[in-house]
Amino acid sequence: MKRLFSKTYWADKDVEILLGTLLRYGVVLSSIVVLAGGAIYLIRHGHELPEYRAFAGPNNRWDNLPAILHGVWLGHGREIIQLGVVMLIGTPIARIIFSVFAFSVEKDYLYIVITLVVLGVITFSMLGGLGG
Amino acid sequence: MTILTFTLILLGGAFLAGLLGSLTGLGGGVVIIPLLTLGFHTDIRYAIGTALVAAIATSSGSASAYVKEGITNIRLGMFLEIATTTGAVAGALLAVFLPTSLVAVIFGVVLIISAVLSIRPKGNHLETEDKSQWAQQLRLNGHYPTPEGTVDYKVRHVPGGYIMMTVAGVLSGLLGIGSGALKVLAMDNMMRVPFKVSTTTSNFMIGVTAAASAVVYLQRGYIDPGLCFPVVLGVLAGALGGTKILAKANTKWLRIVFSVVITLLALQMMYNGISGKL
């Protein structure tokens, strides 16, 4: 019971609720973007034939963020879907960034470092030229 | 079949996958890969990319419900995410060098293990002895609410759990699955974390693990918007429906039937992989 009244317990609890809300908003927002892009894609290409039997390799229209944003600006359906997908991938990453601040408020230095290591691994994965 | 018909059928299939995945605790992603490769003859690399995005969606979507209950052990999850993300990046790199036929066989094996794990009886143990130096120094020991009040638990075998989590991460990055079953096994069996805490913490970790390899997949062209659109929306809707039903239904038989189906799909994947059809 003593723990229940300590400061860290409640601080943790608040953080958890905030994190959960953040994740949910991320998912809802990305789903709306995917749906909007999907509608445009179906209207424009719905009558064509799907081609996924052979792997075509990276498509430079949606394998990097600048190209995706350019396509979104032009109102292309698949780039809008991909923007939603990128937002979806970004949601858990945003959660990690947010956790760094949350642990900073609690002055939990050990976990600030641990969280930064996780963030470092993801950043390396993103920018380390692993796309081949 | 036009893109419109293809999208609608896939949307329905993804809905069912999300529904069954959440009812059985296996996750929607594991059904998406056989659905796309066996059902729609999609290249396995597209299937893997799509399933991984679906895993992120379901993990983030349901995490909000769990964290509110205060069962998730955030410190434990964050610490083990070092293991799963490094594993996931390694797995995504490995995926380039391995032939797709071998990936299909590994997928089949992992799928069968996951299915067996999901029907295994769940002992809800509670470790109260503070034996692990690692757990003390990393402050991994926690507490969670039960109807009888807050229960304290201790974590054990931290290095062993860490290694298993790395393996779970590699498989997640290689196969595009959340590998929730393996994460739960690492925490529940190895680290002696209470089952409820294991499952919710595992779910919390799936999104971050998957995001680490998804950024590599995106640059490689594994993630195709035309497939992600119906699959992500379908799986999400199915998972939401599943959690609604889950509160009421007894899922024991469903779990067994689903495990049998999964095993058959896994064998088919392995056969196609070996015979070079994938």
UniProtKB/TrEMBL annotation, chain A:
<protein>
    <submittedName>
        <fullName>DUF1634 domain-containing protein</fullName>
    </submittedName>
</protein>
<keyword id="KW-0812">Transmembrane</keyword>
<feature type="transmembrane region" description="Helical">
    <location>
        <begin position="22"/>
        <end position="43"/>
    </location>
</feature>
<dbReference type="InterPro" id="IPR012861">
    <property type="entry name" value="DUF1634"/>
</dbReference>
<feature type="transmembrane region" description="Helical">
    <location>
        <begin position="80"/>
        <end position="103"/>
    </location>
</feature>
<feature type="transmembrane region" description="Helical">
    <location>
        <begin position="109"/>
        <end position="130"/>
    </location>
</feature>
<dbReference type="Pfam" id="PF07843">
    <property type="entry name" value="DUF1634"/>
</dbReference>
<keyword id="KW-0472">Membrane</keyword>
<keyword id="KW-1133">Transmembrane helix</keyword>
TrEMBL record, chain B:
<dbReference type="InterPro" id="IPR052017">
    <property type="entry name" value="TSUP"/>
</dbReference>
<feature type="transmembrane region" description="Helical">
    <location>
        <begin position="253"/>
        <end position="271"/>
    </location>
</feature>
<keyword id="KW-1003">Cell membrane</keyword>
<feature type="transmembrane region" description="Helical">
    <location>
        <begin position="88"/>
        <end position="117"/>
    </location>
</feature>
<protein>
    <recommendedName>
        <fullName>Probable membrane transporter protein</fullName>
    </recommendedName>
</protein>
<comment type="similarity">
    <text>Belongs to the 4-toluene sulfonate uptake permease (TSUP) (TC 2.A.102) family.</text>
</comment>
<keyword id="KW-0472">Membrane</keyword>
<feature type="transmembrane region" description="Helical">
    <location>
        <begin position="162"/>
        <end position="185"/>
    </location>
</feature>
<keyword id="KW-0812">Transmembrane</keyword>
<feature type="transmembrane region" description="Helical">
    <location>
        <begin position="197"/>
        <end position="216"/>
    </location>
</feature>
<dbReference type="GO" id="GO:0005886">
    <property type="term" value="C:plasma membrane"/>
</dbReference>
<dbReference type="InterPro" id="IPR002781">
    <property type="entry name" value="TM_pro_TauE-like"/>
</dbReference>
<feature type="transmembrane region" description="Helical">
    <location>
        <begin position="44"/>
        <end position="67"/>
    </location>
</feature>
<dbReference type="Pfam" id="PF01925">
    <property type="entry name" value="TauE"/>
</dbReference>
<feature type="transmembrane region" description="Helical">
    <location>
        <begin position="222"/>
        <end position="241"/>
    </location>
</feature>
<keyword id="KW-0813">Transport</keyword>
<keyword id="KW-1133">Transmembrane helix</keyword>
